[in-house]
Amino acid sequence: MDHFGSNRFAYSPGRHVGLAAGLSAAVMLSACGGKHEAIEMPAVAPTTSTASLAVPTPQVVVPTPAVAADERFTLILGLLSQGKVAQARVDLVQYLEDRPRDGRARDMLRQIDTDPTILYGTASFPYTIGDDDSLASIARRFMGSPYRFYGLAKFNALSVPADAKPGQIIRVPGRPYAVPPRRPRAAAQQHEAAPGTPTTVARPVVDRAGGQRLRRAGLEQMSAGSIDRAVTLLERAAALDPGNGAIASDLARGRRIQSAVRSRN
After folding, report:
1. H/E run at residue 212
2. 152: in domain
């Protein structure tokens, strides 16, 4: 054996003791290894609140409960008039699924979804709202349809069309043009008693003509979505002609729609 080979496997007490100690330590660590694996490190508290990371639940808009077929579109107009656009749009889409050829409804959906300057252009003129005006009546006169009242409201950044008030100045899309003068309201004729004619006690008089006039005005407001104003006019019509069944029926319908509109948050 050479010099290197004779020392390679030579016995050394110090080396033997060190090796034994190292093996013992390794065995002890191996025996305890299962216990260390079962120990979990304490959780570190997050620096950001869990609540702040929560994703907000989007508000789900469901269709309005079923109403009579002839009241559905009027209810949609009432919702738009009160600024309840999300609900109105859901109901309008559902309405168009049943009546896809309804041009009024398609035009109304365009008003909701489209910038008014794209629909009507940027040219406009000022208009002062009168005592007998509504956005629907103004839209009928200058924009060709009372159902464009919502587009007119958007053009003026009015989120609630029903809030437009007499004396308020708005911008009407397009150019002003000559409008036929409004027909003056029929003034009540007052007859003076002739001299010497005995005075009689006045009896309550049913004004059927006045009731019909107010009924027509109320139905016009209802068809344009101004439900509160329609109900007021129909109540006045019923007071003038309390026995008129048609007025009573229209008033009941208006109140049903008014209640449905107010029930939608």
Report:
1. helix 208-223
2. no
Split into its structural domains, the chain has a count of 1
Instruction: Examine the pLDDT at 101 and tell me if it is beyond 60.
Output: yes
Q: Which domain holds residue 257?
A: 208-263
Within-domain flag for 201: no
Assigned domain for 110 exists: no
pTM above 0.90, yes or no: no
Residues of the chain with pLDDT > 90, as a percent, come to 37
Distance (Å, whole) CA 94 – CA 97: 5
Q: How far apart are CA 153 and CA 168, in angstroms?
A: 12
Neighbouring residues of 234: CB distance < 8 A, sequence distance ≥ 6: 214, 215, 218, 219, 247, 250, 251, 254
Could you tell me if residue 8 is inside a domain?
no
Count each helix (H run) and each strand (E run) in the chain, helices first: 12, 2
For the stretch 83-91, contacts whose Cβ atoms lie closer than 8 Å and that sit 24 or more positions apart, written own/partner, are 83/159, 83/160, 83/161, 83/162, 84/261, 84/264, 85/112, 86/59, 86/61, 87/61, 87/264, 88/112, 90/61, 90/62, 90/63, 90/64, 91/63, 91/64
Statement: residue 28 has pLDDT above 50: no
As a whole-number percent, the residues of the chain with pLDDT over 70 amount to 62
